Amino acid sequence: MAGRKQNSTYTRNEVCIIDCDLTYAVHKLGGRWKLLILDKLCKKKMRFNEIKKEFSYISERMLTLQLRALEEDGLIIRTVFAEVPPRVEYELTEMAFELGPILKQLSDWGGKQRSSVKKD
Fold first, then answer.
1. What keywords is this UniProt entry annotated with (predicted)?
2. Distance between CA atoms of residues 91 and 44, nearest Å
3. Sheet containing strand 87-92, strands side by side
4. What is the pTM of this model?
């Protein structure tokens, strides 16, 4: 931790997350559904119910938690419109748009690896 004074509030994990770029990225994107949500939002802004329809196998609570975490991490913007009933839209931040090519590469890699696995 060059140039930073370590105190007792830092745990080993926090130091690793702060100082290791790969660990920082994995921490921000880690979570069972975050990558899939980000991939859908790469295409367009979406309302909660639209996202829910795309991922019917995710509980509402889990989807809400994942969306909150993505918002807190600065990867999505949540916009609430003053309408009745209230309308909420989710969209990617500029920082998250940079993930588009990376998500495509991960998808391509996954497809290649999945197709190379022998099916019995």
1. DNA-binding, Transcription, Transcription regulation
2. 7
3. 46-47, 87-92, 76-81
4. 0.77
Q: What is d(CA 30, CA 35) in angstroms, rounded to the nearest whole number?
A: 8
Report the distance separating Cα 74 and Cα 62, nearest Å: 18
What would the two tokens of residue 27 be? 């921490």
Q: What is the pLDDT of residues 20-46, one digit of tens each?
A: 888 888 888 888 899 999 999 999 999
CA proximity to 35, closest of 116, 89, 106, 118: 106
Q: Cα angle at 33 between 68 and 113, to 5 degrees?
A: 155
The enclosing H or E element of 100 equals helix 100-116
Domains and CATH numbers, the chain: 31-115 (1.10.10.10)
- Please list, in sequence order, all residues whose beta carbon lies within 8 angstroms of the beta carbon of residue 96, skipping any fewer than 6 positions away: 38, 41, 70, 74, 75, 76
